Amino acid sequence: MVVADLHVHTTNSDGTLDLDEVPEAARRAGIDAVAVTDHDRPHPDLDAPVTTVGAADAGDEVTIVHGIELRVEADRQRVDLLGYGLDPTPALREECDRIQQDRAERGARIVERIEDHLGIELDLEPRPGLGRPHIARAVAEHPAVDYDVQGVFDELIGDGRPCFVAREIPSFETGRRLLQDASQVVGLAHPLRYDDPEAALALTADLDAVERWYPYDRPVDPEDPTAVEGDLDLVERAIEQYDLLPTGGSDAHGTELGTAGLDGGSWERIAAALEG
User: Fold this and answer.
1) d(Cα 226, Cα 218) in Å, to the nearest integer?
2) Could you say which DSSP state residue 153 is in?
3) Which of 7, 141, 211, 214 is 20 to 30 Å from the Cα of 36, by its Cα?
4) Which residues of 243-253 are buried (b: 16+ CB within 10 A; e: fewer)?
């Protein structure tokens, strides 16, 4: 039973939930804790590493963990790090500001390429926090084209597609150091989604945690029809070898939370680590 979803995006990056909607979404899902892990930026309205909203005696208490998802450049591929219990340092804020400026400039270039490629105009202004999901939704909603959101990624803006533009991101070492200075727990997100999962998992030797539960693209779940034989062993071996905390979440960009995450015992271990 999922009690904590520790990978959720809000409108601070490319999610659709406002921060004040997160507790009610958690209650609908029947979960007790949520980590807000927006892409490459702290949430400006979370002023503590961990916040509790609601009341235990009323049965509606929800724990909100301030987190972040930071993309970094490793030796052979780009991977995503998750920082939990975030208390942003000046150095992290400075790097996030640089990344957001790059996001805005990159977004403008992607929009320009799409408009030229499809012969349309998109009502989408480049801004900090802009991500490819925003652009994909704008294209899918345009009346002159016949794409759904996944089709926009698959045919236009996914890696290597004609309208793709790469971002400038920090190195793994820089990102790890920034997050370790600003967070209580730093982990690797969705380890089997990368082109080289074994190389990605080797990075966890310098981390605290790894996502053990998530719902898509080679999930670590032997009962999932898309799971690959042996994948679970890779992750479990890394957890044992490097003494990692297993974490997880839905990577929600919409309003449904709790499709993957931690059971009670696993959440208790993370909660204890967040207390420092």
Assistant:
1) 6
2) I
3) 141
4) ebbbbbbbbbb
Helix (H) or strand (E) holding 78: strand 78-84
Structure tokens at 187: 């982990």
SS3 11: coil
Instruction: Report the alpha-carbon distance of residue 150 to residue 165 in Å, rounded.
Output: 17
**pLDDT band for position 219 (cuts 50, 70, 90):** low
Among residues 118, 248, 109, the alpha carbon closest in space to that of 132 is found at: 109
What is the rounded CA–CA span in Å between residue 73 and residue 172?
A: 5
Query: Residues 264-275: pLDDT tens digits?
Result: 999 999 999 999
pTM of the model: 0.87
Answer yes or no: are the C-beta atoms of 113 and 163 closer than 8 Å: yes
What is the SS3 assignment for 21-73?
HHHHHHHHHCCCEEEECCECCCCCCCCCCEEEECCHHHCCCEEEEEEEEEEEE
Of 157, 41, 58, 130, whose CA–CA distance to 92 is shortest?
41
Question: Among 7, 165, 194, which Cα is nearest to 82's?
Answer: 7
Cα 61 versus chain centre, distance: 24
13 within 8 A of 42, measured Cβ to Cβ:
no
**DSSP-H helix ranges across the chain:** 22-29, 90-118, 132-140, 149-152, 172-182, 197-202, 231-242, 264-274
Buried b (16+ CB within 10 A) or exposed e, 59-77: eebbbbbbbbbbbbbbeee
d(CA 213, CA 222): 11
